[in-house]
Design goal:
Helix content: 55-70%
Shape: elongated
Oligomer: single chain
Number of strands: 0
Largest sheet: none
Length: 99
Amino acid sequence: MGERKSWGAKRAEIMNRPGAGAAYEAARIRFELGEAVRLRREQLGLTQSELAERTGLKQPAVARFEAGGTMPTIPMLERLAEALEMRLSVQFQPLREAS
């Protein structure tokens, strides 16, 4: 049998593959957007179904979004922001300053 690798070694191997960094970054963005929507929805005391109704979506679409399963368009983010009583702000940051 082959030698077992630590999680860190396996992660480094995966991240060195072509395109892995971009895929990781896209997943991170989806997760952070979904988390922000879920936290705000909960702050407002809304259910996923209520948010879905406010945005014209179906509840499973809201659930997928909150779980980081979809990359939204700008118009979708605008609808979510309005439904969550927020203002959408999109910005560019230099890579050295981005987290």
